[in-house]
Specification:
Largest sheet: 2 strands, antiparallel
Helix content: over 70%
Strand content: under 5%
Oligomer: single chain
Order of helices and strands: HHHHEEHHHHHHH
Strand order of the largest sheet: 1-2
């Protein structure tokens, strides 16, 4: 019998996790929607961000929240470099999604093995005194680490939404997303938009990786599990919809929390895989995408 307190805690944990994966999916959707790049390396860079934050915490005593001041600009520049060196040449490919899938899968393996060499395959966790604390919500203790990760993700999604809808560059990104040929005809540089988009996607992965480090342990191969959640959220919410990504992330999080409350944890991923198959069969364009 599941107690009321345990059920609420599981639901909260699911919501916190879903909000963070919504942020990770937003960056994934940006590169997919704008450049038709299926970036399988996206989650591995989130893991890399968590490792960098861990190294800064343990080695230099920099708080994980403060490390965002280093990780966000660093990953934006890293995204620009990856796009310029590896992905820009793919614009001449006949099948960009297939070519990008192969290339980014190889990139993910390279980054994964580099992390294993640099930090060993041991599981790590971003942990400080306040991240391990909790705040009372009535009789229910709410863990502060997951709550901060969720708030951080919602703020980041809000900033990306503001950028896309209230700046000239952001509107150029949307125009390229919706009608690339028309955007090019009115003078929008597709190369410049793609470069900025990939840098922004990489920066969002950095924030999401640190936020996930507040919730769970991470290790070099955990990006395969994170990729499952990204695909689930992207397919459920619809590629190209930020509100869909947020709603899809919260829905997946609630399903994850409920599943963990009622069935053994080892079966939770099986439930999520089954959900992915059902969504692909019933609504392949996503619940929030026409």
């Amino acid at each position: 019998m599941v107690s009321y307190t345990h059920l609420i805690q599981s639901l909260l944990s699911g919501v916190f996790l879903g909000g963070i994966f919504a942020l990770l999916t937003v960056g994934f959707s940006l590169s997919w929607g704008i450049m038709k790049v299926l970036n399988l390396s996206h989650p591995v860079f989130a893991v890399l961000a968590a490792y960098i934050a861990y190294w800064l915490l343990v080695g230099v005593r920099i708080d994980p929240l403060v490390s965002l001041l280093v990780v966000v600009p660093l990953f934006f520049l890293l995204g620009i470099a990856v796009y310029r060196l590896l992905l820009a040449p793919l614009r001449r490919a006949r099948d960009i999604p297939m070519a990008s899938t192969v290339l980014t899968f190889g990139l993910a393996i390279v980054v994964e093995n580099s992390m294993a060499y640099a930090w060993k395959p041991d599981a790590r966790l971003l942990k400080t005194a306040y991240l391990g604390a909790s705040i009372p919500l009535g009789d229910l203790p709410v863990p502060l680490g997951p709550l901060l990760g969720f708030i951080l993700s919602i703020v980041a999604i809000g900033l990306i939404y503001y950028f896309l809808h209230n700046t000239y560059t952001g509107k150029a990104v949307q125009a390229t997303w919706q009608e690339p040929e028309g955007a090019a005809l009115v003078g929008i540089s597709l190369g410049r938009v793609s470069t900025i988009t990939f840098g922004l996607a990489m920066a969002s992965a950095g924030v999401a990786g640190i936020a996930l480090g507040f919730l769970y342990t991470f290790y070099p191969t955990v990006h395969y599990i994170w990729m499952l959640f990204v695909f689930l959220v992207a397919i459920l919410g619809g590629v190209g919809s930020m509100t869909g990504a947020l709603a899809g992330g919260l829905i997946i999080g609630l399903i994850f929390g409920l599943s963990a409350a009622f069935i053994p944890f080892v079966w939770v991923n099986a439930v999520l895989f089954a959900l992915l198959l059902v969504i692909l069969l019933v609504r392949p364009t996503g619940l929030f995408r026409m």
